[in-house]
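In the previous chapter we treated chains in isolation. Here, by contrast, the input contains two separate entities that must be folded as one system, with a combined length of 229 residues.
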Amino acid sequence: EVQLVESGGGLVQPGRSLRLSCAASGFTFDDYAMHWVRQAPGKGLEWVSSISWNIGNIGYADSVKGRFTISRDNAKNSLYLQMNSLRAEDTALYYCAKGRTLDSGWDYWGQGTLVTVSS
Amino acid sequence: QSALTQPASVSGSPGQSITISCTGTSSDVGSYNLVSWYQQHPGKAPKLMIYEGSKRPSGVSNGFSGSKSGNTASLTISGLQAEDEADYYCCSYAGSSTWVFGTGTKVTVL
C-alpha cells in the first residue's frame, strides 16, 4: 500500500525557517517524480515545487523561488522542502504527492502538514 | 505562472451531466497533453480523477471523462451522484519543470 506521510509543520515566526519531510512507502521511490502542493485555509490548491526521480529536473513556483528548496533522499525514501524567509502568505497545509509514470498525474497524496507563519 | 481559469461553481441534479472548463494559455494547457483533474472532498486530500487530459486511473468511475480543445480542458461528470459533490481542480504542465493549478470549481448536487 502506497503511503506518504508529511511531517515538520508547525507555528513559525515570519522570516524564520522550517523543513518539511515526506516519508514514502509502498512503491519504488526512486522511480517517480515527487511534488509539494499547498492549500491556504479556505483556498485552492497551489503547486509549490517538483523534483524528478533522478533530481535532474527541479521546478519552483514563482511565489517560493529563491526561498524554498526541494530535495530527496532516495536511499531513505524521503522528500524534503526547506522553507526559508517564511511569510504570512506561506501559511497553508502542505501536501506531498507522487507522480505517475511519465509524471502524467499525481496519483497518491499525503494528508498534509500544516504550516502557520505568524508572530 | 497564472492560475488556470475555472468556473467558481457548477451544479446539477442527480443523474444529469455537468462540464467544468479549465482555460489556460498556449504556454500550458495548449502546449502539453499533461492536464490532470483532481477531486477534493472537505478535509480530505485531493484524488486523481483524470490524467493526460482524458485517461482515467484504475478505480475511477467511467462517469468521469476529460477532453481538451486548444487552450481549454474540460471535465465532464455524467450521471451525477451525491458523492460527486466536491471541489474539482485542473492542473497542467507549464514547461521547465513547472506546473499550474486551476482556480477550482465547487460542484453542487441539487
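Chain B has no helices and nine strands. The beta strands of chain B are 9-12, 18-23, 35-40, 47-50, 64-69, 72-77, 86-95, 98-101, 105-109. Compare these points with the single-chain example from earlier in the chapter.
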